[in-house]
Amino acid sequence: MMPAHHQPQSVTESFVMSRVSLSQLQNANRSIQAMRAMFDQPNAAPALPAPAAFDAFTLPLMQQAALIQLTETHVKRALIARLLEDAQDKPQAEDYRALVDLGLAERREADRWHHLTRAGVEPAKILTQKLCLRFNVHMLTEGGDSGWQVRYACPCGFSTMVRRSRTAWGNAATQHAASVRTKIGIGNLVQALKPPGMTEG
Q: Are residues 120 and 169 in the same domain?
């Protein structure tokens, strides 16, 4: 006979005890894993700086014209005309293929024309800004509003918010002219400080 103080457990009681024990083990295992994650982290490699945007100003003349041709700016025709005013040709298929090789442009099978890639948008934008300043090509346009203010912008990179009024455009134009003078002055200073033989980049 079994001792009086040791009563057999029912099936239900045994199942509940087993389930509680399993839950406790799982919780303990998760706690151990959390502690390991805190103290046993692998030595991570130092974060690398973000790659700088490709400087399209270093491209050959025809490839610059090809890249500008792919933009949607209102001044692209004027910029291309100034770029190619001394040239006897225009961008050819090989110029666009060079942009594709650089990852700046693409042409899908269903497309007739090339398009800028995501990687090509920023270099094309910066090139447009540089050429606008170089050739003094500007177009100040209204580009949205916010309450009592209205935004004006130019492809040269200028952007401002001015109070909405009859003189809003004139106020923006005054700021734009001052911004252009400042940028050109800084650009001339940078060029003057470069060692002989170095061109603008």
A: no
